[in-house]
TrEMBL record:
CHAT domain span: 262-524
Record's protein name: CHAT domain-containing protein
Organism of derivation: Boletus reticuloceps
Pfam families xrefs: CHAT
Superkingdom per UniProt: Eukaryota
InterPro entries: CHAT_dom
């Protein structure tokens, strides 16, 4: 675009600024105009650039809030929000606005899960506000339950019913925000709130944008630390493609050699600059959380290192976990009523070795039996496999258990992510089906299946994969996999892992999962690709 005169530029940006006052009912034209504002503002380095990003994100969320919460509306996210959050994050950092960068990224990632989580939002503060609050909370819960019923009842009138109910939930949200102290009910979190994600250790956001690649270290007691990365978005994509090619190799010697190259490049260009800062402020063997965006989300940041004799890899220094957003980590740390030293846990181990159309998994039976041997004392252990591990039974058990171990084929769908599934006896236990589950007190899930952290190819920042679905269902701590699992190695890994999950008092504690995985992978003798494919998400 060419603006020949200063008056043209001023007039154009005056028009764009009118979007700030756009009505609550947002049109597609509003969204397109806001994205145009961003493009032009970035091109001319206009002072309104951050306002353009803020407005675009706000309009997008208002637009989505007026739509039924159906998976098919993910297509709107793909069309309307591609790179919006990561580019907003970059724009803020390039202008020194580190706190605002965190707020906008948090607002613009995992939008689908965020919208859906409104139906499960705790209403304690609303109910405690007084009689009016109790009435509104009751009505909110009633409408939310009707929405869940409608989501589970496909039919010709489903769209109409959901539109009506969605209008009702929006009305209630507006009314609740008028109550004293609740003006920010279900609004995007402020940094003063979400910085508490770092209460257990630093959270490192690693962002890839067309404008810059950056790391931002979130700390509880000081402002975020910005670490510019000397790598381009294109180079990050090259690394992810190289990783994918190396993990698909048939010969383990080729896998190890090529994977080592990826991990060294990842260390040199991304992780080492972050570690240089961490070593100045954080004791060794402390926990850290990675929050990767865009193409960084498929890279094993936790496994980066020089992989040279006499030099330390990241796993020699710190214990890594992951989180899709800061808010997700805060939710994972909410107090669990039965995560006490004395309480016995309900543990269900689910196995399916012979799913229709899949290669037989020879180690499933042994894997489940060894888990039962390891944790049968500290937990009330139940094992189902073969014909028993059907969709209805697994869904039922998932709602009643606190701990779950799934050993089966994982089937990612990178173009229709809500169809990603676990292969069970009678079909696919999809993300869409998992979304309907409401476990009573979910704590820990171990997903011993392939590709459980692989999400949508076009919209990785929506973080829609099997592990995130278990997190949305409420499981505070999840073990997932980044690529294909070798069936010959799983029993060795899981048996060692559960040995470390039992604490000194002989009890199970889901907050030990990151430590247990870290210790397992440093001690178990398996090929490099199998040693680093498991990751921990959550608390």
């Amino acid at each position: 675009m060419q603006l020949r005169q200063a008056d043209d530029e001023k007039s154009l940006f005056t028009l764009y600024a009118q979007l700030v006052d756009a009505p609550q009912l947002v049109s597609s034209n509003n969204l397109s105009a806001a994205r145009s504002w961003i493009r032009v503002a970035e091109e001319f380095q206009h002072p309104s650039t951050l306002l353009a990003f803020e407005t675009s994100l706000r309009l997008l969320i208002h637009h989505l809030a007026a739509l039924p919460l159906l998976p098919q509306y993910l297509i709107i996210l793909k069309e309307r929000s591609a790179s919006l959050a990561v580019d907003a994050f970059s724009a803020c950092l390039r202008r020194g606005a580190r706190v605002r960068a965190v707020e906008l990224l948090e607002q613009g990632r995992s939008i689908f899960w965020s919208q859906l989580s409104r139906l499960r939002f705790p209403l304690d503060d609303v109910m405690a506000s007084g009689p009016v609050g109790r009435l509104l909370a009751d009505e909110f819960m009633h409408v939310a339950s009707l929405i869940r019923i409608a989501l589970n009842s496909p039919g010709a009138d489903q769209h109409g019913r959901l539109c009506h109910l969605n209008f009702e939930i929006q009305r209630l949200i507006i009314n609740i925000r008028e109550l004293p102290g609740l003006s920010r009910f279900l609004l995007p979190s402020l940094f003063s709130d979400i910085r508490h994600a770092a209460s257990g250790g630093p959270v490192i956001i690693v962002n890839a944008s067309q404008y810059s690649c950056d790391a931002l270290v979130i700390l509880l007691d000081r402002d975020p630390i910005h670490i510019p990365l000397q790598i381009t978005q294109e180079s990050v994509r090259d690394l992810s493609e190289e990783l994918h090619a190396s993990t698909e190799r048939a010969k383990k010697v080729d896998v190890t050699r090529e994977l080592g190259s990826v991990l060294r490049n990842l260390w040199d260009q991304v992780v080492s600059p972050v570690v240089d800062f961490l070593l100045t402020t954080l004791p060794l063997q402390s926990r850290i959380w990675w929050c990767p965006t865009a193409d960084f989300s498929v890279l094993p940041l936790h496994a980066a290192g020089p992989y040279r004799k006499g030099e330390r890899n990241l796993s020699d220094l710190y214990i890594s976990s992951y989180t899709p957003t800061l808010s997700a980590l805060i939710r994972a740390r909410r107090s669990s009523p039965s995560n006490t030293a004395g309480g016995g846990k309900r543990f269900i181990a689910i196995g399916q070795a012979n799913a229709i159309g899949q290669v037989e998994l020879l180690s499933v039976g042994t894997e489940l039996a060894n888990i039962g041997h390891r944790i049968g004392g500290p937990a009330s252990f139940k094992q189902i496999e073969g014909p028993e591990s059907c969709i209805s039974r697994v869904a039922e058990e998932l709602c009643k258990t606190e701990w779950v171990h799934l050993a089966c084929h994982g089937l990612p769908n990178r173009t229709r992510p809500f169809e990603s599934a676990f292969a069970l006896h009678d079909g696919h236990f999809t993300i869409e089906r998992i979304m309907r589950c409401e476990p009573e007190n979910p704590q820990f899930a171990y997903l011993s299946a392939c590709h459980t952290t692989v999400g949508d190819e076009v919209s990785p920042d929506e973080v829609i994969h099997l592990a995130s679905a278990m997190q949305f269902a409420g499981f505070r701590s999840v073990i997932g996999t980044m690529w294909a699992v070798d069936d010959a190695e799983t029993d060795k890994i899981t048996s060692t892992f559960y040995k470390h999950m039992v604490d000194e008092s002989g009890c199970l504690d889901y907050t030990r999962a990151a430590f247990a995985l870290h210790k397992t992978m440093r001690s178990v003798n398996v090929p490099l690709d199998q040693r680093i494919l498991y990751i921990h998400l959550g608390a």
